[in-house]
Design goal:
The protein has 468 residues and is mostly helical. Helix content is 50%, strand content 6%. Helix 2 packs across helix 9, helix 3 crosses helix 9 and helix 5 packs antiparallel against helix 16. Bound molecules: zinc ion (2 copies). It is found in: Cytoplasm. Belongs to the CTU2/NCS2 family.
């Protein structure tokens, strides 16, 4: 059962002061107490470090579950989430937030925490005399990927039922649930989209390329839901462990230039800015919380892709087993790369009732981005920022070929793993890409885009097709 009411015993509604204390405490306790835990100077090694009253959650020597009782563990995790939200101005009272919920433990916790924040904001609203305080809106999105990878019907039914029951069991304010097929990136005509999606995936022979393409399409679907329903933030449950895997796999795939774009708290290169409030939480901790609080989760049986991504996941899992701080170390190290200028929430509108504290935080945060990289051109397929010098070289090399439209607007990694090698298959791929990717390719194409546009005229959507 979801933790969703005021009867919940889980400290969900404690006040801000408590959380601040928890944050500081957890920082302080992290190192010294871990040493103390190992050498047992506190006498009773079964008791929680924070409250010194209750039993620890587990006997693990590393990880917060081995240091805290379940209450302190929970409030520590929520504090990390809250810290990420507040110090990056992720959610302000006038926002409408879409939480991407796959059914897995990480996005389940993201949904739970966003919900708890909203409930608290709603309580403050009801308590305020003039009711002038805004409460941000929350919606939930689930992307049904049956058309992209074969999933047994009963399994997808079970997943959707669980998603529906989780969302409907959350206490008010009511949250809209959007269950959308991944092929909707093409148009509202689903059977047409399904056909195109199948053909598109068939043009990609590399297993890793196929898997990555599906995740790019998933992001496009989420963006589409958000834009069409008036959401201005997209919250993902991406945690430290996921980011650590992404850091290694991107490095392996030669995506070093664009890597800093994907691993920040905020990614505003999209029409609807993406926020990662669980960036500082480990998958193990989020799993643990779901178990401890009985948060319902559901996961599809994974069809093994046996590509780079799976290989890297098992490699990082092995590293983490050897040393439980490895995932955090990988993310912290990659975090030292210079971010892009879109790695923050764009300037907040002065007049929309945004509290002063949020604006101040934003100013402070923007100050941190003085030395950030700027990028105007993005990969047509993965939306990764392009290193302009690479693009120029490529264009001069392939000038005159129709295929240079895609080759000249794709990062080297997508070229290697997703783009077919011969130009006829490249043309086919271009004709099968969803409109938003084609638009990106056109935007990024060289200044003589008119002549190129003529060459690929038959693949372009006419205005009325775009509208439908
Ligand atoms: Zn405790
Ligand atoms: Zn790319």
């Amino acid at each position: 059962m979801a933790c969703n009411s005021s009867a919940c015993q889980s400290n969900c509604y404690r006040n801000q002061d408590d959380e601040a204390t928890v944050e500081q405490d957890s920082l302080r306790t992290n190192k010294t107490d871990r040493l103390a835990a190992t050498y047992g100077d506190s006498g009773d090694t079964h008791l929680c470090f924070k409250c010194k009253a209750k039993e620890r959650m587990s006997s693990s020597e590393e990880g917060d579950d081995g240091r805290f009782c379940s209450d302190c563990f929970r409030s520590n995790l929520f504090a990390k989430f809250r810290q990420a939200v507040n110090s990056n101005a992720m959610i302000s009272p006038s926002d409408k937030v879409l939480v991407a919920f796959s059914g897995g433990p990480c996005s389940r916790v993201a949904l739970q925490f966003v919900h708890e924040m909203q409930v608290k904001a709603h309580k403050n609203f009801e308590a305020s005399r003039d009711r002038s305080l805004h409460v941000f809106g929350v919606g939930v999105a689930y992307i049904d990927e049956t058309s992209a990878c074969p999933i047994p019907l009963h399994e997808i039914d079970r997943t959707i039922q669980t998603i529906q029951s989780v969302v409907s069991s959350l206490s008010p304010p009511i949250k809209d649930l959007h269950i959308v097929q991944i092929e909707s990136v093409y148009s509202s005509n689903l059977s047409d989209g399904r056909e195109k999606l199948k053909k598109l995936l068939d043009t990609v022979s590399d297993v890793t390329g196929k898997e990555d393409l599906i995740s790019h399409l998933r992001m496009l679907s989420l963006q589409k839901i958000a834009a069409e329903n008036g959401y201005n933030r997209l919250v993902l449950g991406t945690c430290t462990s996921r980011i650590a895997c992404h850091v290694i796999s991107s490095t392996v795939k030669g995506q070093g230039y664009s890597l800093p774009a994907d691993i920040q708290y905020v990614d505003a290169r999209w029409e609807v800015p993406v926020a990662l409030p669980l960036r500082d939480c480990l998958a193990q901790e989020l799993n643990m919380l779901c178990c401890a609080d009985g948060l319902k989760t559901v996961e599809l049986t994974k069809t093994s892709f046996s590509g780079i991504n799976d290989l890297v996941s098992s490699f990082v899992a092995l590293l983490q087993e050897e040393n439980p701080s490895r995932e955090s170390t990988i993310v912290r190290t990659a975090g030292k790369l210079t971010p892009f200028n879109f790695s923050r929430i764009p300037d907040l509108n002065e007049s929309n009732g945004v509290p002063l504290a949020t604006k101040r935080r934003q100013k402070r945060n923007n100050f941190k981005h003085v030395n950030s990289l700027s990028s105007e051109t993005f990969c047509a397929v993965c939306n990764g920022p392009l290193n302009m010098s690479d693009v120029q070289t490529l264009r001069s090399f392939e000038a005159g070929q129709v295929s240079s439209i895609l080759a000249g607007t794709c990062c080297s990694s997508c070229q290697f793993q997703i783009l077919p090698k011969d130009s006829i298959s490249q043309e086919l791929l271009l004709s099968l890409l969803p409109p938003s990717m084609v638009a990106r390719a056109m935007h990024g194409s060289p200044s003589n885009s008119n002549s190129l546009r003529e060459k690929i005229q038959e693949f372009l959507l006419s205005d009325d097709e775009v509208e439908s």
